[in-house]
């Protein structure tokens, strides 16, 4: 599978390394033509407002086309913020997942932590967004103390945490397996 990782800013290298270890061809996506022919896409953590500033109109259009084509997307941390419908504090978002998120909702850098989801899944939370509302077409896949931390709508998966840092590729396998 040929998987693109948005590589404008943030933690794209860890996703790329994990995907390569799983046998995927990885494309670091920095321009619209880099998105041609992808089978999957990762929007990594980092700083969502910085990623928006670095994203040109052509590349953004290519990302939207990927989602419209029904191809899989894994959006983690800042990537989830980009994929959300609404963001607080207010900023532009893509609207791929019918969720409202609060940037840094689980706390600032000082509050970054490792935790366990309600089912025991390890979570690495780094300035993690908090999902404040989940739309009716969105499945909650994991929660932390009853609050959603992993959601899916169709082929778009959004995580408030950093699965690429947890040492277990389960979510990358799940996101890029045909449904």
Mean pLDDT over all positions:
93
Kindly, what is the distance between the CA atoms of the first and last residues, rounded to a whole number of angstroms? 15 Å
Q: What count of domains describes the coordinates?
A: 1
The dominant shape is globular
CATH architecture grouping: 3-Layer(aba) Sandwich
CATH classification, class level: Alpha Beta
Strand order of the largest sheet: 2-1-3-4-12-11-10
Beta strand count: 12
The main pleated sheet reads as: 7 strands, mixed
Poorly predicted regions: none
User: Order of helices and strands, N to C?
Assistant: EHEEHHEHEEEEEEEEH
Provide tags for this entry.
179 residues; seven-stranded mixed β-sheet; alpha/beta; Rossmann fold
């Amino acid at each position: 599978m040929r998987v693109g990782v948005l590589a404008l800013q943030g933690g794209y290298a860890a996703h790329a390394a994990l995907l390569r270890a799983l046998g995927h061809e990885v494309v670091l996506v920095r321009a619209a033509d880099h998105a041609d022919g992808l089978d999957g896409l990762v929007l990594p953590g980092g700083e969502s407002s910085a990623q928006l500033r670095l994203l040109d109109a052509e590349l953004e259009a290519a990302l939207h086309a990927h989602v419209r084509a029904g191809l899989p997307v894994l959006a983690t941390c800042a990537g989830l913020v980009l994929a959300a419908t609404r963001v607080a504090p207010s900023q532009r978002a893509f609207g791929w997942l019918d969720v409202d998120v609060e940037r840094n909702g689980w706390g600032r850098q000082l509050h970054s932590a490792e935790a366990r989801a309600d089912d025991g899944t390890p979570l690495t939370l780094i300035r993690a967004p908090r999902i404040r509302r989940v739309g009716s077409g969105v499945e909650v896949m994991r929660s932390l103390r009853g609050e959603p931390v992993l959601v899916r709508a169709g082929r778009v998966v959004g995580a408030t945490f950093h699965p690429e840092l947890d040492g277990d590729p389960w979510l990358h396998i799940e996101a890029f397996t045909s449904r």
